[in-house]
Amino acid sequence: MPSDHSDEQRAIMEPFVRMYLRRLPEVDLPDLTPEQLLAEICDLLEFVSDRPDGEVKIRVFRPQSEKCGYSTPGSVVQVLTDDRPFLVDSVTLAVAKVDANVVRHLHPLIGVDRDTEGHLTEIGKARGAAHRESVQHFELDRQLTEAESIALVDSIAETLSDLTKVVVDFDSMRDVVPTMIGIAKAGVHHYSFEEISETVDFLKWLMEDNFVFLGYRRYDLEESDGVDCIVPNIASGLGILRDQIPEPRPVPLDDLSTQLQERYVGGDLMVISKTNRHSSVHRDARMDYVGLREIGPDGTMVAELRLLGLFTSKAYLGSASDTPVLRRKLHDILAAQDVIEGSHDYKTIVALFETFPKDELFAMEVDSIGETIGELLETEEAQTVRLIVRRDPLNRSVSVLVTLPRDRFNASLRMQLQDLFLEEFGGNAIDYRLAIGESGDARIHFTVWTGEGARIDIDIPDLERRVVALSRNWHDRIVEELLGRVGESEAHRLADSWTDKFPEYYKNATGTEIAAGDIINVDRLATSDADVIVRLQNERAIANPPGVIDPLTRITVYRTSGKLNLSEMMPHIENLGIVVVEEVPTRLKDETGTFIHDFGVLTTEGDELDIESIGVRIGSAIEAALTGAIESDSLHRLLVLSTLDHSEVMILRAYRSYWRLVTPSCSIGYVDNALAAHPRIAEDLVRLFEARFDSNHDIGAEELIAARIVAALVQVSSIDEDRIEP
Length: 726
Hints:
Layout: H1 7-23, H2 34-49, E1 57-61, H3 65-68, E2 76-82, H4 87-96, E3 102-106, E4 109-114, E5 120-124, E6 132-140, H5 146-185, H6 193-206, E7 211-224, E8 227-239, E9 251-252, H7 258-266, E10 270-278, E11 286-295, E12 301-311, H8 313-317, H9 326-337, H10 344-355, H11 358-363, H12 366-382, E13 386-391, E14 397-405, H13 411-425, E15 427-436, E16 441-450, H14 460-471, H15 474-486, H16 488-498, H17 504-509, H18 512-526, E17 532-538, E18 553-559, H19 566-574, E19 579-587, E20 595-602, H20 611-626, H21 638-641, H22 646-662, H23 668-677, H24 679-692, H25 699-714, H26 719-723
Antiparallel strand pairs: 1-2, 2-6, 3-6, 4-5, 4-6, 7-8, 7-12, 8-9, 10-11, 11-12, 13-14, 14-16, 15-16, 17-18, 18-20, 19-20
Helix pairs in contact: 1-2, 4-5, 5-6, 9-12, 10-12, 13-14, 15-16, 15-18, 22-24, 24-25
């Protein structure tokens, strides 16, 4: 604490510092020096110290050391206002709309006393304080432009205005519900007892902490110039619907969509739906709409009483079969299906009903829910991929239900389906809910929110085929790849035997063409007496290999007895005179601990290897070297540079050893380099050996090869290299 502060200043500052630091995450402390932290707190306290007339204070700025005593990489957002319910959530929503990430968010709650001019005179604990204020401090990861800062201030101010209306009118909105109940009961001559009873129970259910009330207004149905119109009753408005329209403007029924006209002329007693508008209070979601029809003595509609809000987590967590309105829909579906309580079909229908999102159940007609459940019953037994599409009657959204076997579902598929549906239906946003059935199926309920002009001419069968294609799992794709290589029965045997043994990271990172080759090779290894086999493949030979930018040659070592140390394998590969770019290890989940070492390599010129001509020779040489059957050294470069195989290179290795006993002036490395520099001469030396010691000795062939060697030696520029000959 600064020593030059007066006792009065310290009395205010000390509790504020404690409250601020209590909210500061420990992970942030190493990034802040005590001086910077004190400067930040002092600057914030100065912002808090004056609040004339209880105004809401908002500022968005970039702290500078010269002015504030501290600095941040991005902009800082600070808000000071009276404490209210939903305050932190709502302001955070407003800040989240900016295209920037929140690095740090502190929101201490303080008890305050202020004088008549709004000057801070005392800070204390919030609990038990006569007046509480909320201080919010956001640090963003980038600096906002001036236009962005102004827009953010306006957005926060608008959010706080909505929040104030909601909090002030909260009790009044709840008090409207008994009035709505009375109006519902008054419709007894025009609606069934069951519908009225469910409506009344639902309105009571809202009051049981199942609904966050955000707005209310009455809309009267009146005649204007001989035309039936909907007229907002401004005086009735509460919450976010209070004082929203300066003057009531009648809306002719004929201007509404056919579906809305039917709702006003002869619809259900109560309508439960979603608004297009997102809530600015509590959480970012489309608001829930509850509309109640008021019926006059002649049976015509005289008004709609409209509630806006958000169903709470308690409402969503509760059982749909116990929720008013929904339980009646379930009762009607069970009756239509003519199932007996306690039977298998009865339990299955109830279980399927419970998996639907409650928003969907509220919005769907009973017949539509029943038809969908019937299709789900068929899908459950068949374990197939199905697509069920339903359009919102108001054309604001499309409901898409995808059912598929559980083992085919993953997060990647869900995101691919979201992108597909957004594109196909012209959506601007999409929500989803996943349900896992007891019989092994997964059901994903998507809601695609569409604007005006959304596509309606969708080829649903074609869309379903595309969903089926996307939902093929790794096993399916491997079978398809293997079919062209080993036939149908063997493809299924290999896939069934091995696909579950590969780890997820391998499946996500490896193309099916390479994976199919790996499966064939590990199966070959498992059914042989060998401990190791080696195979080569070029990435460029694979059509559109995933993630490949600069194609490599893959040298893959398959080993049944587990992982080898890189120090054991790398020399055998580097002795070939090639560059190892990467190594990708994979341990299979089988009984023997089969391990795959996959090396990405290039020539020294940065090219792939010509595996058609040298692949088999290189693979067999590495196998032999790993099993200790042969020696491996830099002479193995000739496997790449010539047509020699590893057994023929052994002849040169013997020449080299015998020659050095006679002429030890050159090192082994120098001899190897000389032979690698002249691979045609090295190859002819082996051919000369073979011709000379062939059982069918041909003196003419021997002399021809010898002459070719002599002629080639004339072209060797280095005297030392010229002397290296057997």
